Amino acid sequence: MQPTNNHINYVEFKSTDLEATKTFYSNAFGWQFTDYGDSYVAFESSGLDGGFEKTNQPIVNGALVVLYHNDLESIKSKLIQLGATISVDIFSFPGGKRFQFLDPSGNELAIWSE
After folding, report:
1. How many CB atoms lie within 10 A of CB 34?
2. Which parts of 31-111 fold into alpha helices (H)?
3. Distance of CA 32 to CAs 3, 24, 35, 105, Å?
4. What confidence tens digit (pLDDT) does each residue in 72-92 have?
5. How many CA atoms lie within 13 A of 83 on its CB side?
6. How far apart (Å, rounded) are the C-alpha atoms in residues 78 and 50?
7. Strand 65-68 relative to strand 108-113, pairing
C-alpha cells in the first residue's frame, strides 16, 4: 500500500513474548509475521501493517486499535479459547456494538460490528 499523507500508516505494540504474540494473532485473525532479530516482529494481512517490540517492562496505556468483525459472538468465543481476556464485554453504541480484549501480553484491542 502506498503511504498517504495524514493517514495512519503503521501501528506498533509492545510484547512480553513475541512467539506467544505471533501464535495468538496468527490463530485469531490470520495475520502473517516477519521476524527482525530477537526483539521485533512485523505483521501484515491485518488491514494495516505494524509490529511488536519485545519489552520486559509492564505494558501500560497502549493505543486502542479497533478491528472489525461481522460476528462478534463467534470472534469473542475464539479469542477466549486462544487465551484472551475480555476487558469490556459487548456493548452497543450509536452505529453498532463492540467489545474489548487483552492479548497474552496485555495489549488491549477492540472489535466492533454494525
Report:
1. 11
2. 72-81
3. 20, 11, 10, 18
4. 999 999 999 999 999 999 999
5. 11
6. 22
7. parallel
